[in-house]
Amino acid sequence: MPDAAGYHGHVTNHGDFRLSITQALGDQLADALDDLSPAPLTGPNLNELEDRPGVYQLYRNGKFVYVGKADKSLPTRILKHLRKVSGRQDISLSEMTFTCLYVAEDFSALAPEKLLIKNYKKRGEIPWNNNGFGNNDPGKRRDETVVKENHFDALFRIDLGRTIPRITSGVTTLAKLLAHVSKEAPYTFRYEKKKMGTAYKKEIQVPETDLTVAQLFELIAINLPEEWQITVLPGRAIMYPDNRRNYPSAWRYYRGGQVRDVEPEIGEAGEIPEEPDAVDDED
Fold first, then answer.
1. Is 91 left (phi over 0), alpha (psi -120 to 50) or beta?
2. What pLDDT sits at residue 277?
3. Structural domain of residue 225, as residue ranges?
4. pTM of the entire predicted model
5. How many CB atoms lie within 10 A of CB 174?
6. Do 97 and 181 reside in the same domain of the chain?
7. Beta strand pairing status for 258-261 and 266-267?
8. What's the pLDDT score for residue 16?
9. 67: β partners
């Protein structure tokens, strides 16, 4: 029954209304990207892009595998992925395509890639967003970590057969050769300079031909002080004065002028956290 003012006792004058702006933005971004046709992941195609922020998607053999963002430059960011894939075993750039979408700089504060990731995970897509593909070199503190079997590095090891453009033939120094390999290899080659002493300036005869990373590592290793070694991990190579140390996930050592292949320890599949974009270099 209504009261004297005419209101019913069970009627309320307030309630809840929820509008998910972020979900709407994520859906719109996904729809806009879905309308694009993937292009081969090549240098010329990246050169056609503008240096603007945005979001992008990577495909392998037509399967959607990764979504990411570029805070400043789409071509610069996607080029890092091109370089990474180019230096791996059991995968080819010919399998890779991409799409991208420019977004306003102030839109990046809304973390558009996270909106897309949330959207696509519901569909069971973007497996490379969960396997360490987008991670940079985590630094020396993680060198002894056991790599999980579903990690990108375990699935696609670095390719030591990759040819490196020839450094000036003739006599060079160990320092220049190390810098050349570190710059030209399509994966991280991290080493320590401070403890090498005079060996860092040692002169080395370089053949007049292009060499593979493996051949260069052999050449470097025979010119290192006795206690040094080059260790090849699934996703990077490192060089330190620790030839008595065995790394769990290592699959090759260049030690004492010898090359030794070993069986790496691989962990069970599991969630792989994103690493920070920083490296604790000791150079």
1. beta
2. 40
3. 140-267
4. 0.84
5. 19
6. no
7. unpaired
8. 58
9. 57
